[in-house]
Amino acid sequence: MSRVIATAAVSLDGFVADTSDAVGPLFDWYNNGPVEFYGADPGRPFHLSQASADYLGSVWPGIGVTMIGRRLFDLTNGWNGVPSVGDHVVVVTHEPPTDWPFPDAPFTFVNGIEAAVAQAKSLAGDRDIAVAAGNLTGQLLEAGLLDDLVLNLVPVVFGTGRPFFGNYTGHQQLFDNPKVVEGDRVTHLHYKIS
Predict the structure, then answer these.
(1) What angle, 0 to 180 degrees and rounded to 10, lies between the N-to-C axes of helices 113-124 and 135-142?
(2) H-assigned helices in 16-99
(3) Is the dihedral of CA 178, 22, 45, 120 positive or negative?
(4) Domain assignment of residue 123, yes or no
């Protein structure tokens, strides 16, 4: 059965980007090691520490679908039609793009989080769903639709920016201890919610 896993690189003070959507050093760990590693895009290699490569190698092959919001889709131009992880991308949006230059890319545009999770599970089969952090993660947590949280914690303080949980206004939740993997300038914290 598919698990819904929210994940992102995050600063020590809980931000996934600054107020102008720049990630600063949050992604540096993707290229600070000797191990060549690939997600879904064969043209986009990462160079990870052995510990980070081992951790991602245990998680990423099990991802069938990535779920993102319209904001990330617009910021990345949908990675030019190539999913970053998994075989398909589900974009949660009220307004699908009308002029995106990759109409045959494995991207599906869905209105509403419940419908998006249902579509993602249908596409993923028995594989998992990775959710990019931000408002979408906060909405899914509030709705009880997340199974795991993965914070790739980077030793930087932003002071202000885009929070990992977006505009989450739900109730306080306490999770069990995470699986902890220490990489190079990143600590992977994997929490099981359900």
Answers:
(1) 90
(2) 50-59, 70-76
(3) positive
(4) yes
DSSP code string of 8-38: EEEETTSEEE-TTS--GGGGGGGBSSSEEEE
Q: What is the mean pLDDT of each run of 10 residues along the chain (194 residues)?
A: 94 96 96 95 94 96 96 93 94 93 95 97 97 93 96 97 92 94 98 90
If one counts the domains in the chain, the total is 1
Residue 19 lies in a domain: yes
Give the CATH number of the domain where residue 45 resides: 3.40.430.10
Q: Is residue 193 part of a domain?
A: no
pLDDT of residue 89: 97
Q: Which pLDDT score, from 0 to 100, does residue 133 have?
A: 86
Two tokens at 104? Answer: 């045959």
Residues written for the chain: 194
Domain residues for the domain of 151 are 4-186
Report whether 181 contacts 166 (CB < 8 A): no
pLDDT score for 111: 96
